[in-house]
Amino acid sequence: MSPVVVSSPHGPVTNRVDWIMGQVLFALVPGILAMTWYFGWGLLINITLAVLFALGAEAAVLRARGRPVLPTLKDYSAVVTAVLFAIAVPPTLPWWLTLIGMVFAIVLVKQLYGGLGYNPFNPAMAAYVLLLISYPVEMTTWLAPRVLAEHSLSFLESLQLILLGHLPQGLDWDIVSSATPLDQMRTLRAQDLMIDEIRQSPLWGDFGGRGWEWVGNWFLLGGIYLLGRRIITWHIPASFLASILVLAGVFWMFDPQAYPFPAFHLFSGGVILGAFFIATDPVSACTTRKGQLIYGALIGALVFVIRSWGGYPDAVAFAVLLLNIAAPTIDYYTQPRVFGHAHRNPKGQDGGTG
Amino acid sequence: MSHLAPAPSPRRLWTFHGGIHVPDEKALSNGGPIDPIPLPPRLVIPLAQHIGTPARPCVRVGERVLKGQLIGEPQGYVSSAVHASSSGLVVAIEPRPVPHPSGLSAPCVVIEVDGEDACAPLAEPLTDYVHLDPSVVRERVRWAGVVGLGGASFPTSVKLNPGPDRRLKTLIINGAECEPYITCDDRLMREQPARILEGVRILRHLAGAERILIGIEDNKAAAISALVQALAATDLQQLVSVIPIPTLYPSGGERQLIRILTGLEVPSHGIPAQIGILCQNVGTAAAVADAVLRGQPLISRVVTVTGRSVAAPRNLEVPIGTPASALIAHCGGYRQPPRKLLCGGPMMGFELRDAEVPVTKATNCLLALTAAEAPDPGPALACIRCGRCAEVCPVRLLPQQLYWHSRAKDLDRAQDYNLFDCIECGCCAAVCPSHIPLVHYYRYAKTEVWAREQDRRKAEQARLRHQARLERLERQEQERKAKLRRKKESLEGKGEGEAKPASEDPRRAAIEAARQRAAAKKQAAIEGLPTAGKGSGPSGASAPRAAETAKRIEEPT
Q1: Most A CBs within 10 Å: which of B256, B306, B385, B554, as the mutation test of the A interface?
Q2: Residues in a beta bridge with B316
Q3: Which of A209, A221, A237, B287 has the smallest number of Cβ neighbours within 10 A?
Q4: φ, ψ at B316 (rounded to 5°)
Q5: Using CA atoms, how far apart are residues B202 and B126, in angstroms rounded to an integer?
Q6: Who among A6, A10, A338 is closest to B418 (CB)?
């Protein structure tokens, strides 16, 4: 008989943290492959580096804190953070920026708050924002998608770029890079160009930037998989996307030449990735059903506001971090009505003591 | 013949939030009939087998008792009688290990069985209960020691008395048996549906209910059809509906079943009688029938002995007080050594550390789980706030918040999050990907709150006592001063001349003495009061239990 007496239930376990994290990683695969197809090997190199740095940082902190190292590394949460970070940053990012990002994400944002489950902020997004503010040039230099690029970087060229920080001889940035659709929309709108004029550029596909629009679809596929496996619920993605669609739709109908159409918002930048993989990070999101709806809707609204009138072309990371702060408060005021209680009551009621 | 029986009537059912589907494992033990177990050489009969005050022993060591003889009288209203399960010699009345999560001992009557199984004279059957005053029939149920046999073991006679201003419109008979592995109610419904319906008829009469709903999970088709057929042979058809309900744990919880069948929610901290409902288990109904129609006290019950460690799992008819080890032995012993021996089901049962503990009225199942059935979940990981616990919580609590606050010992916040609405069904812990023993934390928090309440009560008593003492000192001081003044006055008076007749003085002294005696008595009453009002019930036992829980909770983390 077992020496440790634990309360019921006594049945077999049906669910595991590492399985959940593994499912998230699996669901990211189609999007990662699509991005690699469009933007080259840089992403895969970045993912490898980020995972190594993240695991190294986590192991070092766990050892310093006197916590078991291997069992914690095996929950794969650091890997998920690393992969999400690598997807969000440009595939040309110098290795030392990835290192800074991962050390910041794991050591400061995650472990200093107590490790997995205790971090109020999404580590990957916090690291992304830190780098975006500190190294704006490196963080906004994107390669041109394969369909537009005059030259696609080979594996070795990508490796050289990431590790040594300069392009191979005979290449310069004008040939390999291009503005992201969000960047371009922002710059040209600032020059008061009409949306129709902007869209005449060869960068534009059916509803977003060429290449870009399809990456979003592959991440959407992964997101639907997560919904199907019940790793995430529909509340956050649905309210996030609905809120951005509604807001963009209203402004677009109001002035279709000044505001891009809703599908552009949906399939540009990090919205799909954010809605299914980042805002749904359970640790930093709301946990009540109603709270999740509010949380997602507010992220969507913030993304639209910052994109339309703010200082950055994309805003998923900022919006997620801002709502991370608000999540505990939203949770507090959206408690469900408990069975047998007349009304929902966040303040607690008749202090029943059995 | 079965085609003649009317099909269970389809009717609207409601749902409760959450719940989980667990493998029911009923087929292990529900194949064969209920098997009576031979008498053990020694019966250990606990005096507290029910919720409420323990019974007071009314036999002495060395006394011969007969089967069915009263050995423990109920003490107070919420209490229950205890009877000898067989004839023999009382060899001890002392604390013995009982089936309780704490593993602590409690007072028991130990009977050396003589093997004759000689019956005490039975009480007179009350076959004409319809024309008797309900209180007479209730008193019989109380005398027979009938308690809820579904697991909670609340005295049935108390439940049957809703008070003068409440009407019980609906009687719900709980045959859901939603816990995995357990099949004692299933077998009882299949084998003795008529006996259950006799009890249902009596319960209906006592409650004055207008309709009777028998809820059974739809994984027990045989039990459903047995009851439907038995019902067809009675005149209760107009009143009783046998209702199959979807198999979903914990649909057999009293509040959950009431919700499923009626759509009503029992108020938090309230009882079903507040919404006009009486809920009784099928086994309880059968025990009520025995008590009223046959004059038999509750001295045996059906126990499921199951789990893959048991050689031949089955249901047994067991005299109360039989040691658990005898049940296992009767089922062929262990096929392989169990990792856990549980009292109750896997979702809500507790581990027995001693296989010699007796079967009580609350013991519905002995479950010996193999390492494969109850694997060690490993150390608990950090909560990732995934919210699955909240998804499955049948009470719509936020188990995760309760966990944070319980863990941080922030008991006020835990109570704000309705800690005491938790029914400890275990759904949250069963789905937790981090394998956190959530229910363990809630039980710990509850006992901590009880302990704190008790401390608070004690502090309040001490404060009252201190205040009374200060008042007493003050009064004595005043009295002393008054006496002094009077003496002075009388001395001064003497100086002026003999104003008062001499006969008055002794009389006044007597009056004064009497007044002082009365004051002293009053004082003694105030001081004696706090010591008399010591807490009992759950809070009375909570201090050792809290310490126990605290100790245990530290081990897995």
Answers
A1: B385
A2: B35, B303
A3: A221
A4: -120, 145
A5: 10
A6: A338
Nearest-Cα distance to chain B for A184, in Å, is 38
Q: Nearest Cβ partner of B431 from A15, A337, A351?
A: A15
The alpha carbon of residue A51 is apart from the nearest alpha carbon of chain B, in Å, by: 20
The pLDDT score that the predictor gives to residue A268 is 80
Q: What is the pLDDT of residue A350?
A: 39
Task: Please tell me if residue B418 touches chain A, with a CB cutoff of 8 Å.
Answer: yes
Tell if the CB–CB gap between A4 and B374 is shorter than 8 Å: no
Name which of B96, B118, B91, B122 is nearest B107 in CA terms: B96
Q: What whole-number distance in Å separates Cα of residue B130 and Cα of residue B97?
A: 42
Find out whether B263 and B215 touch, Cβ atoms under 8 Å.
Answer: no
* Interface size, chain A vs chain B, as Cβ–Cβ contacts under 8 Å: 177
With contact defined as beta carbons under 8 Å apart, do B92 and B61 qualify? yes
| Residue among A19, A116, A340 whose CB faces B421 most closely | A340
Q: Mind listing the domains of chain B with CATH numbers?
A: 125-295 (3.40.50.11540), 302-369 (3.10.20.600), 388-447+540-554 (no CATH)
CA B113, chain centre distance (Å): 28
CA distance B519 to chain A (A): 38
Query: How far is residue A7 from each of residues A313, B367, B424, measured CA to CA in Å?
Result: 52, 15, 10
Looking at the DSSP assignment, which residues form a beta bridge with residue B358? B323
Task: Tell me the per-residue pLDDT of B319-362, one tens digit each, with 9 for 90 and over.
Answer: 999 999 999 999 999 999 999 999 999 999 999 988 899 999 99
Which residues of chain A are within 8 Å of residue B383 when distances are taken between CB atoms?
117
Mind listing the pLDDT tens digit for each residue in B99-147?
988 888 999 999 999 988 889 988 889 988 889 888 899 999 999 999 9
Reading the block at residue B54, the tokens are 């323990």
DSSP H or E stretch at residue B92: strand B88-97
Nearest CA-CA distance, residue B175 and chain A, Å: 22
Q: What percent of chain B has pLDDT over 90?
A: 69
B555 contacts on A by Cβ (under 8 Å)? 4
Strands, DSSP E only, in chain A? none
- Please check whether residue B21 touches A, CB under 8 A: no
CA distance A316 to chain B (A): 21
Radius of gyration of chain B (CA): 29
Distance from A286 to chain B by nearest Cα, in Å?
A: 9
**DSSP three-state, residue B546:** helix
Task: Please judge whether A1 and B338 are an interchain contact, meaning their C-beta atoms are less than 8 angstroms apart.
Answer: yes
- The residue-averaged pLDDT of B165-185 equals 92
Kindly determine whether residue A20 and residue B386, on different chains, have CB atoms separated by under 8 Å.
yes
Residues of A within 8 A of B382 (CB-CB) are 115-118
- pLDDT tens, N- to C-terminus, chain A (354 residues): 444 567 788 888 778 899 999 999 999 999 999 999 888 899 999 999 999 999 999 999 999 999 888 888 888 999 999 999 999 999 889 999 999 999 999 999 999 998 888 999 999 999 999 999 999 888 888 887 877 777 778 888 888 888 887 777 777 777 777 777 787 777 777 777 777 777 777 777 777 777 777 888 899 999 999 999 999 999 999 999 999 999 999 999 988 888 888 888 888 888 999 999 999 999 999 999 999 999 999 999 999 999 888 888 778 999 999 999 999 999 999 999 999 887 655 444 433 333
- Per CB-CB distance under 8 Å, the chain B contacts of A337 are 396
Q: Determine which helix (DSSP H) or strand (DSSP E) holds B254, and give its type and residue range.
A: helix B254-262
B431 touches chain A (CB under 8 A): yes
Per the CB < 8 A criterion, the answer to whether A327 and A271 are in contact is no
Per the listing, tokens 């928090």 go with B445
Asked if B189 reaches chain A (Cβ–Cβ under 8 Å), the answer is: no
Dist. CA B295–CA B70, nearest whole Å: 13
Query: What's the ipTM?
Result: 0.84
